[in-house]
Design brief:
The chain is an alpha/beta fold and about 725 residues long. The chain is built from 27 helices and 18 strands. The longest helix has about 35 residues, at about 205-235.
């Protein structure tokens, strides 16, 4: 987005509204993707039709569709301009009429009999005998250049690539329908982005400037796709002899150009076949490496290792696959194995400074872990050394009146603190220490699992992971009200890491807890742990915004967080799940867990924080209701284990978090386990919704109604342009995509 045609406009726009920068980048990527899909639809549509049928369709559609608008952007332009004048359409370089930029047919309808319509603007013909190897190369080229959003790229790589590689007449129609569906989805994504850009504009002048920049972006996207197409054509021409069989248009043969029609090549030579085989292998390796990246992002480290290993087996020279396997091994704290992969990367590319730095960091971490194993670990209690009275007597200025140690935290202070956080400001160290120390005193008084009762006529809201997404936490309060005795909340762990505003999330929740312990309840997640904070950014964030001392007190507080809540003696709320390996685990046993320690690698506490309900496709592989988790820690548990736990403890439902869900929640196993996730658009690219649950005391006392909770979904909020994991140690940051 640095073209000389609009660099000045971009600088003007972004200087007044930084929010639009990331949205405009997303818009450019989605628009390019849509053009690619439209181009491929054209190719496949032509392949579907026989020569004579194609001529008839063209003649009919030229008469009926002269004034139709086939641009991929018409819906989105309505969003930008409202009910004002229609935005000019993207034009093909070979025509001035309104049409698809590539002048290829598009599909309509979703039936098995796909009808191919024409825009009335084919300036050249397309061969009837479409080349499958050509489509394979074009599809994979766009997959590998990352022109697609993560969600659609995943769909393309999982569902389309295998079909392209073995395409036949029998599956051609199905493939065409799938491409058509992704094309419609892509247009809808563009529509959503344009709507968000409009909302981000603060005045009409910004909207007008945005419209101008969008026009230039469209033109550049079109030229980029066409340029890529030319390059592919040129590469194909070097492989074999060009064999064009152009269709007749209006009874005449029109000349074709490399840009506007696919080429036919002879792949019979051994050189061409070898090149094609190499290309397909490389594309397959790329597919598995991308799958590894997706698994990394959702913390399925075992699966990430498997996918990256498959990519390496296909292409042993593929450095990015080694990077991703090493990243998964690092997250599993297998530093020696990760170091071997970084060493291999350096063998492939001795100048890779990032790999060199990560190799050295792995060696240091491996030595540190060996030392920690050799000595007995004792959790520290730095809060006992804090003398709040001395701090406030020295630090409070006369203009501030009484100290917080005297007056306590009130709502005015909390709301003022939230506004400071919204403006990316911190609070003074004395307030941070007071909130943390008072929070530790409160949490120490709880059992590891405690009972909570919601009386008839009262409500309680249950939220899942927030992961340092402070502005989305504020969104929850805007939608559902601030915590109070009349409007209490349960936040079910994973308050920090990944997102870069974990301090703000924690101090906000803790301030409410200190103000009134009954207005908010916090349980521990797997990310409330020193080792996870070192990996995913919270340690670096606290040290950057406050100090190492504050981080150490956070670690102490995390160790004191309760592990679960029993709600009205009917619902068990826990961060991970109930993937216990013993058959008879009761709540009283969980209450007595010694939780003041880092999360262990096994045992009851580990399974409470780390286990997951088994996905549907894993149920058949369970052994006694359990299977090893893809996270590399704890288990998947099935309905057998869940029902056994609920029956033994006279419970009706388990509410847990720990997993991203597209709609913000998911119900499994006959409605007896519910996952709630409250971090929408997780780490800025997942495009998921967030959700929370509202329970009423009356409903909790009725088993049938307790099993039918009320879900409230919400979308993500704007946040300042600070990327996720901005404060993470270099060893744990993702490599460039």
């Amino acid at each position: 987005m640095t073209s000389p045609h609009h660099t000045k406009k971009l600088k003007t726009l972004f200087s007044t509204n930084r929010t639009l920068e990331s949205l405009l980048n997303e818009y450019q990527s989605l628009y390019t993707q849509t053009l690619v899909l439209e181009m491929q639809l054209g190719y496949l549509g032509v392949r579907q039709q026989q020569q004579q049928q194609g001529r008839n369709v063209i003649q009919q559609q030229q008469e009926s569709n002269d004034s139709s608008d086939m641009s991929v952007m018409d819906d989105d332009d309505e969003d930008v301009r409202g009910n004002q004048q229609q935005q000019p359409e993207l034009q093909s370089n070979t025509s001035s009429s309104s049409s698809s930029p590539f002048a290829f047919p598009t599909t309509s309808g979703a039936s098995s009999s796909v009808s191919v319509t024409h825009t009335g603007n084919i300036s050249s013909s397309v061969p009837q005998n479409f080349s499958t190897p050509f489509l394979t190369k074009v599809t994979n080229m766009y997959l590998n250049t990352h022109l697609m959003s993560p969600s659609l790229c995943t769909l393309m790589s999982q569902h389309i690539y295998p079909k392209v590689a073995q395409m036949s007449e029998m599956i051609h129609r199905e493939f065409l329908l799938q491409i058509s569906q992704y094309y419609e989805n892509s247009k809808q994504e563009i529509k959503n982005v344009v709507r968000r850009m409009r909302l981000a504009c603060s005045n009409e002048s910004e909207k007008a400037l945005l419209q101008e920049v969008m026009e230039v972006v469209k033109g550049e996207c079109l030229e980029r796709v066409k340029s890529n197409e030319r390059r592919v054509m040129q590469q194909q021409q070097m492989v074999g002899n060009q064999q064009q069989q152009p269709m007749q248009q209006s009874g005449e043969m029109s000349p074709t150009t490399p840009l506007e029609s696919p080429m036919m090549y002879d792949f019979s030579s051994s050189h061409a076949l070898n090149e094609q085989k190499t290309s397909l292998q490389r594309d397959k390796a790329t597919h598995y490496a991308y799958q590894a990246l997706l698994s990394l992002r959702v913390e399925n480290y075992t699966q990430a290792v498997k996918d990256a290993t498959k990519a390496i087996e296909i292409d042993s020279q593929y450095a990015k696959a080694y990077h991703r396997r090493a990243s998964a091994l690092v997250a599993m704290r297998k530093f020696q194995d990760a170091g071997k992969d970084f060493q291999r990367i350096l063998e492939l590319n001795p100048d890779d400074l990032v790999a060199q730095q990560k190799l050295e960091a792995c060696r240091k971490e491996a030595k540190r872990m060996q030392y920690e194993k050799s000595v007995m670990f004792t959790p520290t209690t730095p809060s006992e050394n804090i003398r709040l009275g001395q701090i406030f007597d020295i630090a409070i200025a006369k203009s501030e009146g009484e100290s917080m140690a005297d007056i306590g935290i009130n709502l005015d202070f909390i709301h003022e603190m939230i506004e400071r956080f919204r403006g990316q400001k911190t609070i003074q160290k004395k307030y941070a220490l007071y909130i943390l120390v008072q929070g530790i005193k409160i949490f120490k008084a709880y059992e590891s699992v405690y009972d909570l009762n919601v009386p008839d006529g009262k409500v309680i809201t249950v939220c899942g992971d927030t992961h340092g997404q402070f502005y989305d936490l504020c969104r929850i309060f805007e939608l559902n009200g601030y915590p109070s005795r009349e409007n209490p909340y349960i936040f079910n762990g994973d308050f920090v890491d990944r997102g870069s505003f974990g301090c703000e999330v924690m101090f906000t929740l803790l301030a409410f807890k200190v103000w009134d312990p009954e207005c908010i309840h916090l349980t521990r997640g797997n990310h409330e742990d020193r080792s996870m904070n070192e990996i995913f950014g919270f340690e670096g964030e606290v040290k950057h915004k406050y100090s190492e001392e504050i981080f150490e007190i956070f670690v102490e507080l995390f160790n004191w967080l309760p592990l679960g809540i029993v709600l009205n003696q009917r619902i068990f709320i826990v961060h991970g799940g109930v993937g216990f390996e013993r058959s008879e685990v009761n709540i009283d046993e969980l209450r007595q867990i010694d939780r003041f320690r880092p999360c262990p690698d096994d045992g009851l506490m580990c399974h409470m924080l780390w286990s997951d309900p088994a996905p549907e496709d894993e149920l058949g592989s369970l052994n006694n209701g359990l299977a090893p988790s893809d996270r590399g820690v704890s288990n998947f548990f099935g309905p057998e284990v869940l029902n056994r736990f609920l029956t033994a403890n006279n419970l009706d439902l388990v509410i847990r978090s720990h997993e991203l869900k597209d709609e913000g929640y998911e119900i499994q196993f006959g409605g007896r386990v519910c996952t709630i996730f409250s971090a929408p658009n997780y780490v800025d690219y997942s495009q998921n919704k967030g959700a929370f649950i509202i329970f009423r005391g009356n409903n909790l006392n009725n088993r049938q109604e307790a099993l039918a909770p009320k879900f409230c979904k919400f979308t993500h909020s704007w946040h300042p342009p600070v990327k996720p994991m901005a404060y993470a140690n270099m060893l744990y940051q993702e490599e460039d995509q």
